[in-house]
Write a structure and sequence with these properties.
The complex is a heterodimer of chains A (about 400) and B (about 270). Chain A has about 400 residues and is α+β, with helices and mostly antiparallel strands. Chain A is built from nine helices and 20 strands. In chain A, helix 3 runs parallel beside helix 5. Chain B has two domains: about 30 residues, no CATH class; about 180 residues, Orthogonal Bundle (MetI-like fold), CATH 1.10.3720. Chain B starts with 6 loop residues before the first helix and ends with a helix. Chain A: This is Spermidine/putrescine import ATP-binding protein PotA.
Chain lengths: ~400, ~270
């Protein structure tokens, strides 16, 4: 299977992607608006006074651990749950109280929920027939959908005669067939193996671009969210922690929670020593004799306790101390090595007992003197590699 | 693993089958007995089958029984399915425990008590006893069996199928008929067949709730046997056994075949990737 997109269209898609940022445009009207939405199940607060705007043609991801309220948030948009308080607007109209079968949203279910007693064709035509669309138009639309998901030959099959990947495509085609205003995807790729999942992520993006539709995806897989989404909302305990583009979420997390949840990270506690415009000097608790300089404007005052988030791939592990004295540096011993093929992850134990992870790409097949267990090494990173977190 | 069966296995199986089937086999053999004496073999004959079809009383009773069973099974299936849906779908509504207890009470209640209490009820409200009272009584006690069968299917039913139908614009009532019912249909049919057979061979409750002109086959057979077992009764029973056997074999072959085809299709799909 390939994505079936030529180089040229890919370029235009890339072009659209680059310039697409309605969330920065104060004139833009959101397609979906959650306004102070709260959902309680008995005592449990699943969604806590949450407000969120999602724009047309956006591929928006709700990311969080299980139980954070992301699925509830989506199910409220589909109409399977009603908010306890607050409003949900779709294209300016309040949806609360509208039953699911009268909403212009369609959902692709985690279990796919294909009707087992119907053929692939009838599954895809199901929604169209509910609208009393005339037969010729139904046939044309189903053909088009089958073509879109590359299952033209499978129309007569029943769902149990399909592989997992094919079922996933039928579910996608069925939920797209009615051209909903918003397509909701509930962990759509969870049941696929890794390779197929990665391919399908790109297909989803292409389909979303091709149809110009708004997609809302719920996932606990941060890589998936980063790959497909224009913007990601990281959720925790019914609240939004950070809503931003994937690169911002990864490089400028606004809290320990986001830094820790998205990607691999070292979080070092530190005390603020000095604050200058564009630069902050810190004393890490794990190595109090050293000073770190981080290039960041930070509202912290000297003496404050903060944390530094450092991505392993932005840290270098070497035998020799760095030549540049301005580079932030730690000294330690190799505690453990995780060899991943493309990368090696070195766990370095600092003299105080704390450990940091640093990733090193394996650029050549052989190294004269590889770093190995118990080696004394320097771990260093530039001032713009780390992020200071105050919460 | 040892192949084959030990002498212990073989004898347990033989004893088990003998215990279950020797009475039935004897009955079938004696239905072809030429002699009027049930226990004396006097050569092969189909005489009693001819005799049976001349016996208007038995035929009438069979006709009543079939009508009662058919009506009972149909109504009990509808009500039992509704009860099962209520119990699995609507969470912990007020009075759920009471409702579930009432639905399942006939399952554990001695038949004599069910029969007697229904009789008292029919007398109290002045209902003429006969065909309709038997049917009502049978619906009451078979409903719970249907409910159990359907409920066990609904427990494993993927609710997102119904949500998907709603999501695609299908109203709830229609969703039940186009999505839910077709999927749980095998369980509903099993429930129907169970109710049908239960009603077919009920003697106790029918005896309590019957009136003049509505004698079911089990009642007729029982009253004739009290005057002495005739080979005619053996013949009637053999026909019943034959019908039941054919249906059971047919149903199990169908299920088996479906299962094999489903597995084959799944293997094919998996191989295609």
């Amino acid at each position: 299977m390939n994505t079936g997109v030529t180089e040229k269209t890919q370029k235009t898609i890339g072009g659209i992607r680059r310039s697409f940022a309605p969330w920065n445009d104060p004139q833009a009207v959101p397609l979906i608006q959650y306004k102070n939405v709260t959902k309680r199940f008995g005592e449990f607060v699943a969604v806590d006074n949450l407000s969120l705007d999602i724009y047309e043609r956006e591929f928006f991801a709700l990311l969080g651990p299980s139980g954070c309220g992301k699925t509830t948030l989506m199910r409220m948009l589909a109409g399977f749950e009603d908010p306890t308080e607050g409003q949900i607007l779709l294209a300016g109209q309040d949806l609360v109280g509208t039953p699911p079968y009268k909403r212009q949203t369609n959902m692709m279910f985690q279990s796919y929920a294909l009707f087992p007693h119907m053929t692939v064709w009838d599954n895809i035509a199901f929604g169209l027939r509910q609208d009393r669309m005339e037969k010729g138009a139904v046939n044309a639309r189903v053909e088009e959908m089958l073509k879109l998901v590359k299952l033209e030959k499978f129309g007569k099959r029943k769902p149990h005669q399909l592989s997992g990947g094919q079922r996933q495509r039928v579910a996608l085609a069925r939920s797209l067939a009615k051209r909903p205003k918003v397509l909701l995807l509930d962990e759509p790729l969870g049941a696929l193996d890794k390779k197929l999942r990665e391919e399908t992520q790109f297909e989803l993006m292409d389909i979303q671009m091709e149809l110009g539709m708004t997609f809302l995806i719920v996932t606990h897989d941060q890589e998936e969210a980063m790959t497909v989404a224009d913007r990601i909302a990281v959720m925790n305990q019914g609240r939004l922690v950070q809503v931003d583009q994937p690169a911002v979420i990864y490089e400028h997390p606004n809290s320990r929670y986001v830094a820790d949840f998205v990607g691999d990270v070292n979080i070092l506690d530190a005390t603020v020593e000095a604050v200058e415009p564009g630069m902050i000097t810190l004393r890490p608790l794990a190595a109090p004799e050293r000073r770190f300089r981080i290039a960041q404007d930070c509202p912290a005052k000297p003496g404050d306790s903060v944390a530094i988030a450092l991505r392993p791939e932005k840290m270098r592990v070497e035998f020799d101390a760095p030549a540049d004295p301005n580079v932030n540096c730690l000294q330690g011993e190799i505690w453990d090595i995780g060899y991943l093929g493309d990368l090696s992850i070195y766990h370095v134990e600092l003299p105080g007992g704390a450990r940091v992870k640093a990733a090193k790409p394996n650029l050549t097949r052989m190294v004269e003197r590889p770093i190995t267990w118990d080696d004394k090494v320097y771990v260093y990173f530039s001032p713009d590699a780390g992020v200071v977190l105050t919460s | 693993m040892r192949k084959g069966l030990s002498w212990f296995n073989v004898s347990s199986i033989a004893l088990g089958f003998a215990f279950l089937y020797i009475p039935i086999i004897l009955l079938v053999i004696y239905s072809f007995n030429a002699s009027r004496m049930v226990t004396v073999w006097a050569g092969f004959s189909t005489h009693w089958y001819w005799q049976l079809f001349q016996n208007q009383q038995l035929l009438d009773a069979a006709w009543v029984t079939l009508r009662v069973a058919f009506l009972t099974a149909t109504v009990a299936t509808v009500l039992g399915t509704l009860a099962a849906i209520t119990l699995t779908r609507y969470g912990r509504f007020t009075g759920r425990t009471l409702f579930s207890g009432m639905v399942y009470a006939p399952l554990v209640m001695p038949e004599v008590i069910t029969g007697l209490s229904l009789l008292l009820l029919f007398v109290a409200i002045g209902l003429d006893r006969g065909f309709w009272t038997i049917t009502l009584a049978h619906i009451t006690f078979t409903l719970c069996f249907v409910s159990v069968v359907v409920q066990s299917r609904l427990v494993t039913f993927d609710r997102s199928l119904e949500e998907a139908a709603l999501d695609l614009g299908c109203p709830p009532f229609k969703t039940f008929f186009v999505v839910t019912l077709p999927i749980i249909l095998p369980a509903v049919i099993s429930g129907w067949m169970l109710a049908f057979t239960l009603s077919l061979d009920d003697l106790v409750i029918a005896s309590f709730t019957t009136g003049p002109g509505a004698t079911t086959l089990p009642m007729r057979i029982y009253s004739q046997v009290r005057l002495g077992v005739t080979p005619e009764i053996n013949a009637a029973c053999t026909i019943l056994i034959a019908i039941v056997t054919v249906v059971v074999i047919f149903v199990s072959i169908m299920t088996k075949r479906q299962e094999i085809e489903r597995q084959k299709a799944e293997r094919m799909a998996a191989a295609e990737g």
